[in-house]
Design brief:
8 strands, 15% strand, binds ligand LLZGTKA7, Aldolase_TIM, eight-stranded parallel barrel, 279 residues
């Protein structure tokens, strides 16, 4: 099965929520854990125990693992393995993007069968040009994995680049969305090349002429919870494209830890809320 097909099935079974695994130093402290790789491991295991097999996807944020060096990256590898064991899709949020030849190496690390860092999908940055992502697109599609391409990000600063107009007059965001749509054109269920569109972006899709309904791929929507977006924002931002949305919340769920039952409840509540908003 393709990533798009697997994600569609997971969203049907569990609801449209992705739980972000973002072990901020402050969260480790709140959970009574040391700010080192052992604390990171406890944190990640607790989250996977709480939500593995119960939500559509998890999204470990690579930065919070990398800040602990190679021992932290080893914990990220364990999260990827735990996703596989529990049948929970893993979106590695590493936002990679580089010239094509280097992008090939990133693709090898995060999308190649047998790589310990290869989850089910990877977030990528197209701001060296969408074509620079070709090695990742090729490997994702040939290995049954997926990509989420940054399009309209949840931070206010993103507009400076993403709302800018090309020489032909289209917005940068609209161009990125059209490129993803072209790659998903033949997908029957949902394509495997998704976009990142923040749940906080208001009417940015309309203002930038970004046709989210035409993407025929998943729309990863961070910004739910700690960044202020909720059910109303999800419904308003995505409108007719809402069935493709995978809402993502990290701190909004993680603050309920370290109690496993509390974390699980927070995740399932967030999933139900997202499902109701995106129905
Ligand atoms: O546009 C984007 C793209 C990615 N993110 C990532 O999502 C989580 C958000 O965490 P919260 O605690 O739910 O705010 C984090 O890993 C970001 O790097 C995003 O927020 N916006």
């Amino acid at each position: 099965m393709t990533f798009g097909e697997r994600l569609a099935a997971a969203m049907d079974e569990h609801g449209p929520l992705c739980v972000g695994i973002d072990p901020h130093a402050s969260l480790l402290a709140d959970w009574g854990l040391p700010d080192d790789a052992s604390g990171l491991r406890s944190f990640a295991r607790t989250v996977m125990e709480a939500v593995g097999g119960r939500v559509a996807a998890v999204k470990p944020q690579a930065a919070f693992f990398e800040r602990h060096g190679s021992a932290g990256v080893a914990v990220l590898e364990e999260v990827v393995a735990a996703g596989r064991e529990t049948g929970t899709l893993v979106v590695v949020d590493a936002k990679r993007g580089d010239i094509g030849s280097t992008m090939g190496a990133y693709a090898d690390a995060f999308l190649r069968d047998g790589s310990p860092l290869a989850g089910d999908a990877l977030t990528v940055s197209p701001y060296l040009g969408f074509g620079s992502l070709d090695p990742a697109v090729d490997l994702a599609l040939s290995s049954g994995r997926g990509l989420f391409v940054l399009c309209l990000t949840s931070n206010a600063e993103g507009a400076q680049v993403q709302h800018a107009r090309t020489a032909e007059g289209a917005s940068v965001a609209a161009v990125m969305a059209a490129r993803a749509a072209a790659l998903n054109a033949d997908a029957a269920v949902m394509g495997s090349i998704g976009l990142v569109v923040g749940a906080t972006v208001g009417d940015a899709a309309a203002r930038t002429g970004t046709d989210l309904s035409a993407v025929n791929g998943p729309l990863l929507a961070p910004g739910v919870g700690a960044q202020g977006a909720g059910a109303d924002e999800l419904a308003a931002v995505f409108g007719p494209a809402r069935r493709q949305v995978l809402a993502s919340s990290s701190r909004g769920v993680l603050r309920a830890g370290p109690d496993v039952a509390g974390l699980r409840k927070a995740a399932l509540d967030a999933s139900s809320e997202a499902a109701a908003a995106l129905r």
